[in-house]
């Protein structure tokens, strides 16, 4: 079984006497159902799983549930023999977004206290955004992503002791030895090919067959496009168009979404496609990076809504589109192949999975910095530049950025293939695989006041 960090979060929640029902949100094929089923069966003698999409396609038993009593009656029809009490019975409502009205009665189910509940949904973010009667005070929503790089490394046989040792090296800004560096760089490049979708990772571990991995990735990509058709007729074609444009946008120097190119209409503005962008982001299939021109803490206060970058939620989907079954483009470090957008995609998905909101610095005269995150410790912006080639020390925009005293920048990272960790003024050079240790977690001492 693949190690997933979210497992401990779910276990802790279900073991506690929490007043809220957990909703696990995330795109399709990221492993939500599997991990909830695994934890639920481990902790509860009576585990009841109800898939609402299957119900909708079949008997529609739960399509007209409006009260707690109605809900109990319908559950009893499919699993009456497993309905014990709150301590020994977990009811798992999978794909709950199929019946949004069920979300509105979660509060009353929790208050009634007969059983323990957990729910998940592939388009839950979209449903929550569109439903006004959600009892948010009764819900604890967490988002699940594809495997991050650390989880991929663990899946490939690197043990936790080795990872802890590397984490200590990162924290002390120390380099790995040459052999360990080459091993980690090789794993990172394989992660670029395989990505973090659980089925793709398992297939890689079991077969090492790139064709089978690519078939799974292509199917998932098509699932994501097909899900857009469930939205509505007015928006689905534009959603599919924006989603399909992501790889080509990333090939451009600026990498931004250009509103006028979505439908080839002059005068089109970002506001014309607000619903489409919201769908892609809330569904978890696209990752957003927003521009800031005045990068002061907190970054959210100066974000621009008209200069947006979108990345696919899984780097394996991107390399499938760009390179197909040609693994040499990535594994052989071919100098004729520019892997800039691929490296940036991996870093974006990693940082977002670690809980960061992502921004980039955009200045017409001084250039662009790939990523900015909030530096909570120093109350300023924290720049991160990603380099896939040998010229990792060339970054004029980053130099201008960190030298601007108005921004109060304390430090910035440049991530590259270079093994040696070094520092020049405010800029710290790190090997790209150290991205797995950049976590959005406060120090324990910071939590006490």
From TrEMBL:
The AAA domain, residue ranges: 19-152
InterPro entries registered for this protein in UniProt: AAA_14 (IPR041682), DUF4143 (IPR025420), P-loop_NTPase (IPR027417)
Origin superkingdom: Bacteria
The DUF4143 domain, residue ranges: 227-389
Entry-linked PANTHER family: ATPASE (PTHR33295)
Name of protein: AAA family ATPase
Organism, scientific name: Candidatus Protoclostridium stercorigallinarum
